[in-house]
Specification:
It contains four helices and three strands. By secondary structure, the chain is mainly alpha-helical.
């Protein structure tokens, strides 16, 4: 008599070759194998779903990070562009101011030189007489009058702490100041 327990026939082996107990357990073995195969299939399917979900979540996070980096890059680019535009505008404004200042200085100097040039004009003595009369009218007969002082010419009058300056460059400056605003805006 054989005391070893019967072993179920492996797949592909005819169960008629097995002892009677093994034949009786064959349906249980097959059911267990089917359950194990079903459970394994379910585990594999579940694992595949989890992997798919994790891959999807990782892709979503990566897409979100890429979008955030792109947004920040665009924002930084706009900020950089805005700073550059502001700097260029400031440079342009400063350049315009520098040119206007240079033009103003040239105009003022040209006007002063033209006024000083009146000293050689034949009508200059009459201009001095007129300026002296205006100064005396403003300060009174006791005012000290300097006619045609060097280097600017014109008339300068003083009485105590009061002073009237009708030097030729001062008259040129006053003439420029009296120009309409639209005209002065071209160089100021």
């Amino acid at each position: 008599m054989n005391t070893r327990p019967a072993v179920a026939a492996p797949d592909g082996v005819d169960s008629t070759d097995l002892d009677p107990v093994a034949r009786q357990l064959e349906p249980v073995r097959r059911a267990l194998l089917e359950d194990a195969a079903t459970t394994a299939d379910e585990l594999v399917a579940s694992a595949a779903r989890e992997v798919d979900a994790m891959v999807h979540e990782i892709e979503r996070q990566c897409d979100a990070e890429v979008a955030e980096v792109e947004r920040r890059s665009a924002e930084a680019a706009r900020a950089s562009r805005d700073q550059h535009v502001t700097a260029v505008r400031r440079q342009r404004y400063e350049a315009v101011l520098a040119v206007r200042s240079e033009i103003r200085d040239r105009i003022v100097e040209a006007a002063r030189e033209a006024a000083r040039g009146l000293r050689s004009d034949p009508g200059y003595p009459a201009l001095l007489d007129h300026l002296e009369a205006v100064a005396r009218a403003q300060l009174g007969g006791a005012a000290v009058i300097r006619r045609d002082p060097e280097p600017d010419g014109g008339v300068v009058a003083e009485l105590g702490t009061r002073r009237v300056d009708y030097s030729l460059p001062e008259l040129a400056d006053r003439a420029l100041d009296a120009l309409p605003d639209e005209t002065r805006e071209t160089w100021t």
